[in-house]
Request: fold
Amino acid sequence: MIRLKIVSGSRRGSTVGYGRDPVRIGRGPGADLRFDDAQDPVVSTHHAQILFEHGAYFLVDTGSTNGTLLNGRKITKQELKAGDRIRFGFPGGPEAYVELDTAEAPTLPGATVAVTVAVAPRGSQPVYDAQQDAERMASVLKSGARDSSALRMADQAAHEVAERRAKKGGQSSGDTMFILARGINQVTEAVRSRTKSKWVKVVTGVGSAALVVISVLAVVIFYQRRQINRLVSAKTTIDGQIQSLQERMQTETDSARLADMEDSLATLTGSAQSTLLELRRKDKARAEELSAGSDELDREIRRILVKFNASTYAIPPIFRERLQFHIDELVHSGNLKFMYGRKQRSWPVITKDFDALGLPDEMAYIAWVESGFDPNAQSEAGAAGLWQMTTTTAQSMGLKVDGTVDERLDPDKQTKAAASYLAALLSEFGEDSFMLVLASYNRGENGVRRVLHQVARDPGGFRKDKRDFWHLYRLKLLPEETREYVPKVLAAAIVCNNPQKYGLGN
Reply:
């Protein structure tokens, strides 16, 4: 059992206890440990979670805005120990002290370990058989060794490591390398003292010690690989749960249920990210491989998001589907090369004005969706030019539009105005909200502002994670036309950024 003694914040003076079920912590209605919206504003709606895994309690930050601190250090996932100090949100977040009631696994006398640790909750983990693990380790360590000291060392070290692991519920105790290194030193000293003047015996003894060293490394590598495989498996399982949840969100129409699903998604993505971080500590290359993207389209999306500091862990499956649809539509349209030629002719003017304000090229593909890069395009609604500005928008950006002159039809002047308009929106919404800016170009910035103001009326609605495009997209708070507009723009960017692949090369 774990108890949290709350020493500050809205729950100050209370002590709460939990068993082995996950404990959700935050200001949301589904939180098991819920803090007050007004008194604890630095706590996120779903801030953190306590999980019981492999015989120990872990604290997991589930993507909170202001972080979770354990003993003064920001964490993503960390094992909890009695006396630990937790702060939910910095600065000034509520603080709690950890108390644990955990039964220590018994240690039997002698070299033989017969300790078996109970299974993790709900039968999710197999029972750890310390005796079997010790025998397996000893077998590897003894391989090729003939010296009696080496053989004894192998038995003793294997059983000691197994004992420590048993107390950790079958997980690494963190002492394996220390125990094995100590054993190696003992073997080396024993061999050296017995063979001071007997060179042959020295060689034989040292050979045994060397074999032990090699065996130790083999054991360490074996267990490292096992831990890495467990982490990869855990991440794969969580990713599957995320995929399933997002697919259910696509068809859900009830706003309250969608909000609950969004909270669950935040929990799952927080767990996935903490698992990936732990994997990165053990195998950086494997972690990078897993986080690079599941396929080529996923990697293309993430490459664009990184440029805008707008990376997200879970891209909604429906967004991917619509993006792929618009890519296919472009490729099979029959006039792709013609449109690409227009784009190439307009590009020097566009990039000059965009570069002057530091705008990434991807935003310029608004012109592809709006006009097909036709500087003389006019719509039935009265929009005109490369960027399809209305008279009101053009005039607000300093362009002259009257009965005698229409500067919207001047590609250079209208592009300068469009660049300034987009830069102003990025300044208002934030660099990482570039997809929200794309949505604003279709919906109108006032329409997007109204949605954000609507979200702000909910608890914590002013937070960054509640104001980004993905949150509004998943909760269907933007009109369908706008939700479709953003993947259209990105589809044009992806096709034009890969001209050889899509048959646009010279």
